[in-house]
Structure prediction request, 173 residues.
Amino acid sequence: MKKTNRSSHDELNLTNYSAMKNILYCLNNTVKCHSPLLCLCSLKILIGTLIPILTTILPKIVIEMITAKQSVYKLASAILSFMGSLAILSGADKFLTKLIYHQKFRMNTFYLKHAALKGLTTDYINQENGIFRKLQTESFECCNGNYSPLSNIYEILIKLCTSFLGLFVLIYH
Prediction:
């Protein structure tokens, strides 16, 4: 029986990926596993951009209507329409926040399943390896919980895209 060199199995060939590749990996897996999550995130981006725009436009319209000596009825209806739409959008924003919070759990289970399958399909020598066990533990910690790095990607992308869309509207308005 040939004795294997145990130290050669203690080193894993780890690949370091860029942040952009990690984000694209998460987005590709979201499309495969739970694509409605991306639609909900897109809706939240649009609502997050519309609310500040409407709150900025409302005073301008009110001032223009007062200086143009519009009737009180027209002024009140304009304010009511803007405030009503803001209330609906704010409610939808809160609803989407809670819905996205719960939908991210589906992606967590998807990533946990992948980490578990990787551990099950690894040969026995590497399973007993300390480096592999550490990597497996880190993988499970990365996937577990609603505030894990993999589930926080969606919140970060929502905030980033909302900021870019708002800046785009501000510049080209």
Summary: Residues 72-121 form the longest helix (50 residues). Helices lie at 6-9, 19-33, 36-67, 72-121, 124-127, 130-143, 149-171. The two ends are 77 Å apart (CA to CA). The chain has a mean pLDDT of 80.
